[in-house]
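FORM 12-B: Structure-to-Sequence Request
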C-alpha cells in the first residue's frame, strides 16, 4: 500500500490500540493479495432463490484481478503495461487469470486513465488490448452486468439426463452461453 493508505491507530474510545482500516484499504489489499498469490478471482454466485419460478434472483460478486496499474486512483503514479501482460505475451497477471478460464477484470480509476492530460493510463489500456489480441483469439469483452449474468447462468444451470436426452434448466438466459 502507498504511504497515504497506511492504517492508523484508533485515537480514542474503548477500543484504544486497535487499527482502523477503511473499506477501500481492505478491497485494495484483497485485490493485491489475489494478484500476488495467483488466487482465483472467479465471480461468486450467492443467495440464489426462486430458481424454479418466474423471478429467479441471486447476487454475483465480481472480483478485480489486478491492482490499478493504469495510473492509480489519484493519477499520480504512472502505470505499467507489463504488470497486466508482458511484451513476450507470457507473463503478467492477465494471462494467469485468462488461462484458468476466469474473467479478467481490470481495475482502474479515471484520474489514472487521464493522467493529468497525458492519457498515460489510456495508452496503457490500448497496449494491453493490443497484446491480449496478439495472444488470444477467443476473448469476449463484456460489461460487468453481462459477466454477472453469464456467471449466474454458468453456476446455476442444472443439466440432467432424461431418457437419453440432455436437459438444461437455466434460470438465467444469457447470450453466447456455452456448456
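FORM 12-B RESPONSE
SEQUENCE OUT:
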Amino acid at each position: 500500500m502507498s504511504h497515504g493508505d497506511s492504517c492508523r491507530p484508533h485515537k480514542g474510545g474503548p477500543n484504544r490500540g486497535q487499527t482502523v482500516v477503511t473499506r477501500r484499504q481492505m478491497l485494495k489489499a484483497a485485490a493485491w493479495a489475489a494478484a500476488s498469490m495467483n488466487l482465483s478471482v472467479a465471480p461468486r454466485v450467492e443467495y440464489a432463490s426462486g430458481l424454479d419460478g418466474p423471478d429467479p434472483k441471486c447476487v454475483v460478486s465480481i472480483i478485480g484481478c489486478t491492482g490499478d496499474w493504469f495510473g492509480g486512483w489519484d493519477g499520480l503514479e504512472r502505470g505499467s503495461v507489463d504488470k497486466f501482460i508482458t511484451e513476450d505475451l507470457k507473463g503478467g497477471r492477465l494471462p494467469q487469470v485468462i488461462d484458468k478460464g476466469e474473467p479478467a477484470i481490470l481495475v482502474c480509476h479515471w484520474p489514472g486513465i487521464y493522467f493529468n492530460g497525458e492519457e498515460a493510463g489510456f495508452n496503457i489500456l490500448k497496449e494491453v488490448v493490443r497484446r491480449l489480441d496478439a495472444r488470444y483469439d477467443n476473448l469476449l469483452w463484456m460489461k460487468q452486468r453481462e459477466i454477472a449474468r453469464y456467471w449466474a447462468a454458468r453456476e446455476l444451470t442444472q443439466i440432467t439426463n432424461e431418457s437419453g436426452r440432455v436437459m438444461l434448466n437455466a434460470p438465467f438466459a444469457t447470450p453466447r452461453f456455452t456448456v
